[in-house]
From TrEMBL:
Protein name: Cellular nucleic acid-binding protein
Lineage start: Eukaryota, Viridiplantae, Streptophyta, Embryophyta, Tracheophyta
Entry superkingdom: Eukaryota
Organism, as annotated: Trifolium medium
Amino acid sequence: MAAARNNAQIAQALATLTTLVARDNDPGRDSEKRLERFMSHKPTLFTGGYNPEGAIKWLDEVEIIFEAMGCSEENKTVLGTY
């Protein structure tokens, strides 16, 4: 009986491990991780409106984050519009 329980526990552990590995190797997850990294820098929010100085300041701050993250132009567009 103990052997059957151990086998069931091993099978459950392997199933969990398989799920975790599959999730971490999901290419779509890269975008999620990139967004999490970007948001962890707490970028300032651009509120819109007519404020050229505020817009330039916002762009400068966001560009610093993009540079630190090594973002491609495509990723900058996606993250900047989030």
